[in-house]
Task: inverse folding
C-alpha cells in the first residue's frame, strides 16, 4: 500500500507512544491539527499542554512501557476498543549518553526495555488485534545514531540499530497492505537532547521534525530521515571504511 497523502486514509485515528514531550507531543499536535483522533501514550500527562490534553480528539493512555505486564494489559485493552486505528507511531524512547567506561547494566536494561522490547510488545499486540490487509501504517522511531557506532552511545546507538534492523526485516517480508516506515532523525531539540554537552550539528525543532514525518509518512519510500545534510553525512559515514569513519567521528563529535 502506498498512499500519496493522509487525505486518502479512511480511519483517521493514530496511536502515538512517547506522546508527552518532544517529537511525540509535536506529532500528536500535528495530527490533531489535521483533524485526526489521537491516542497518546506516556507516563506523565502533566507534561502535555492543556490545549492538547483538553482537545476532545485526544485520549491519553498512561503506562510505563518498561513495565511489560501492565503495559500489555493496558495497550491490549486500548487496541480492542479502538479497532479503527490506522496508524501506529512507536516513538517512545529514552536517551542517555553512556560511554564504555561509565555505563552500567541497569541503564542498559532500561534502554533496551523502553527502546526495543516495548516495541516488540506493541507489535505483538498489533498483530493480535489488527488485520494487516486493512491498510495500516506502522512507523518505528529509530535514529541516525543507529546507523553505525558513535562516541558515548554504547546503549542508545545499539538500541536504535536494533530498530533499524527490525523495520528492515518487516519491510523485507513484503506485507502488501502494510505501510511500514523507519524514521531516522538526526538531532532534534527536545528534553532528551538537553543533556548533550557537545555541539549538535543541524539541530532542528520538534515541530519541524513532526512536520517532516507527517508530510512523508503516507508517501512512497521506507525511510524518513532528516535533516539534510546531516542525514546524508551520517549515511556517508555508514559506507566509510572503519579507519576513515573513526577519524570522522572524532572530528564531528568532539566536545564543545
Ligand atoms: N531528539 C532527538 O534528537 C532524536 C533523534 C533521533 C531519534 N529520536 C527518538 O525520538 C523519540 C522521541 O524522543 P524525543 O527526543 O522526543 O524525547 P523526549 O522529549 O524525551 O520524549 C520521549 C517520550 O517517550 C516517553 N517515554 C520515555 N520512557 C517511557 C516509558 N518507560 N514508558 C512510556 N513512555 C515513555 C516520554 O514520556 P514520559 O516521560 O511522560 O513517560 C516522552 O513522551 C525517541 O525514540 C528518540 O530516541 C530523538
Result:
Amino acid at each position: 500500500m502506498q498512499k500519496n497523502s493522509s487525505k486518502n486514509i479512511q480511519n483517521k485515528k493514530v496511536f502515538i507512544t512517547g506522546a508527552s514531550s518532544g517529537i511525540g507531543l509535536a506529532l500528536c499536535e500535528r495530527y490533531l491539527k489535521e483533524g485526526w483522533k489521537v491516542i497518546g501514550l506516556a507516563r506523565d500527562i502533566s507534561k502535555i499542554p492543556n490545549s492538547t490534553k483538553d482537545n476532545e480528539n485526544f485520549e491519553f493512555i498512561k503506562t510505563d512501557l518498561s513495565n511489560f505486564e501492565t503495559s500489555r494489559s493496558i495497550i491490549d485493552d486500548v487496541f480492542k476498543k479502538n479497532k479503527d486505528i490506522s496508524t501506529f507511531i512507536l516513538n517512545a524512547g529514552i536517551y542517555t549518553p553512556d560511554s564504555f567506561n561509565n555505563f552500567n547494566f541497569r541503564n542498559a536494561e532500561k534502554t533496551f526495555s523502553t527502546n526495543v522490547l516495548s516495541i516488540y510488545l506493541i507489535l505483538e499486540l498489533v498483530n493480535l488485534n489488527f488485520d494487516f490487509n486493512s491498510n495500516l501504517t506502522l512507523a518505528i522511531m529509530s535514529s541516525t545514531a543507529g546507523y553505525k557506532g558513535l562516541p558515548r552511545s554504547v546503549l542508545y546507538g545499539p538500541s536504535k540499530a536494533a530498530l533499524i534492523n527490525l523495520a528492515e526485516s518487516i519491510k523485507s517480508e513484503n506485507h502488501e497492505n502494510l505501510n511500514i516506515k523507519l524514521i531516522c532523525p538526526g538531532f532534534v531539540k527536545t528534553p532528551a537532547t538537553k543533556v548533550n554537552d557537545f555541539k549538535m550539528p543541524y539541530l532542528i525543532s520538534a515541530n519541524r521534525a513532526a512536520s517532516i514525518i507527517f508530510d512523508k509518512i503516507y508517501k512512497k519510500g521506507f525511510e524518513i530521515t532528516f535533516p539534510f545534510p546531516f542525514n546524508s553525512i551520517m549515511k556517508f559515514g555508514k559506507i566509510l571504511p572503519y579507519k576513515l569513519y573513526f577519524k570522522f567521528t572524532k572530528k564531528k563529535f568532539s566536545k564543545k
DSSP finds eight helices and nine strands in the chain. The mean pLDDT is 95. The helical segments are 22-33, 50-53, 68-81, 105-129, 156-172, 206-217, 230-239, 242-252.
